[in-house]
Specification:
Elements lengths: L1 E4 L6 E4 L14 H7 L15 H4 L83 H13 L3 H14 L4 H13 L3 H14 L4 H12 L3 H14 L4 H13 L3 H14 L4 H13 L3 H18 L7 H11 L1
Antiparallel strand pairs: 1-2
Helix pairs in contact: 3-4, 3-5, 4-5, 5-6, 6-7, 7-8, 7-9, 8-9, 9-10, 10-11, 11-12, 12-13
Length: about 325
């Protein structure tokens, strides 16, 4: 409760604090203080000595001293330190949401970056829990490593890893397939054929195994492989692997027209595979269709860049061939 008492020269301020101690302060500018002969008090955690003018008998005021009858001004704690007028603080609700909006990417980058959220519609973000399901010595982890080596063309390393897995997992189709493909890529015909036959006995309905076996067979006996591929195509007309292997085998026996036709079918069924377009370029180049071959080579490079990470076709050989026929 504030109590104002008149005085002949100045007004004397008295502040009575309640038991729950609400700290308040009056702000007086230095200019007004000089005009009214009122001392400016800055709280630094210590009691400020009273101004002599306040205790001067000629001023008509008593000395500043504690009194039970008169409520003197008491300044305590940091709440009495002010540097200016109080500013209004907006009322912020508990459901307010703050975000670093300036750091949110705009344009194309925003599609893969942080997303704007509406706190009313999306009160919380989803939690994504990542668990490690297998250790480095697990079969699944070793399979991933072996398949990665195979995709990078490290066939010797892939064969070694698949061989280690084969020693303890002889009936795992993934291990048998990887081991057979590694043998085939290394040109080990007999070992690859035995590996494919072992896999076919385990999984006789696997079309990919049949395609790989006939592709391997076509390197030595193309006519026999072609006849079996035609039969397999009739059984599985929508299998892109059968169509592509049939086209390559037709090119090996000299039927370039049918090979280009079937490779076109395979490229339409699997447009992200640069190998089909590359094979079309090789066939067109072989039969003397130079302009068509150049177009196919360029398309193969483009598709390989976008979808094949630059490793699905022999890029160096293509660049060298383009330099010769352009």
């Amino acid at each position: 409760m504030f109590e104002f008492r008149p005085h002949p020269k100045i007004l004397r301020f008295s502040l009575v604090l309640a038991a729950f101690s609400v700290s308040c302060a009056f702000f007086v500018s230095p200019r007004d203080a000089l005009a009214q002969n009122v001392a400016v008090v800055v709280d630094d955690g210590q009691d400020a000595p009273p101004d002599d003018s306040l205790s001067d008998p000629s001023s008509g005021l008593d000395k500043a001293a504690p009194s039970d009858d008169e409520g003197d001004v008491v300044i305590s704690g940091p709440s009495a330190v002010h540097s200016g007028a109080d500013q209004d603080v907006p009322d912020i609700g508990s459901d307010a949401f703050f975000d670093a909006e300036a750091l949110v990417p705009q344009g194309e980058m925003s599609k893969q970056g942080p997303k704007r959220v509406n706190p009313a519609l999306q009160p919380a973000s989803k939690l994504i829990t990542v668990r490690k399901n297998a250790g480095p010595d697990a079969v699944s982890s070793q399979l991933v490593s072996a398949e990665r080596a195979l995709s990078l063309g490290l066939n010797d390393s892939a064969l070694e890893m698949f061989g280690a897995l084969y020693a303890t997992n002889r009936r795992d189709p993934r291990v048998l397939m990887g081991r057979a493909v590694a043998f085939q890529n290394l040109g080990q015909f007999d070992e690859a054929m035995r590996a494919y036959e072992e896999l076919e006995a385990l999984d006789p309905r696997n079309v990919d195994v049949k395609v790989n076996m006939l592709g391997l067979l076509a390197t030595k006996y193309p006519s026999i492989a072609l006849r079996r591929l035609i039969e397999l195509r009739e059984q599985h007309p929508t299998h892109v692997g059968v169509v592509a292997q049939l086209a390559v085998t037709e090119a090996n026996v000299g039927d370039f027209e049918s090979a280009l036709k079937h490779l076109g079918v395979a490229a339409s069924m699997e447009p992200n595979n640069a190998s089909h377009i590359f094979n079309m370029a090789v066939i067109a180049d072989r039969v003397g269709q130079t302009s068509t071959a150049i177009s196919y080579y360029e398309q193969a490079l483009e598709v390989d860049t976008v979808y094949g990470s630059g490793r699905s076709v022999p890029r160096d050989a293509i660049y060298e061939r383009l330099a010769n026929i352009r």
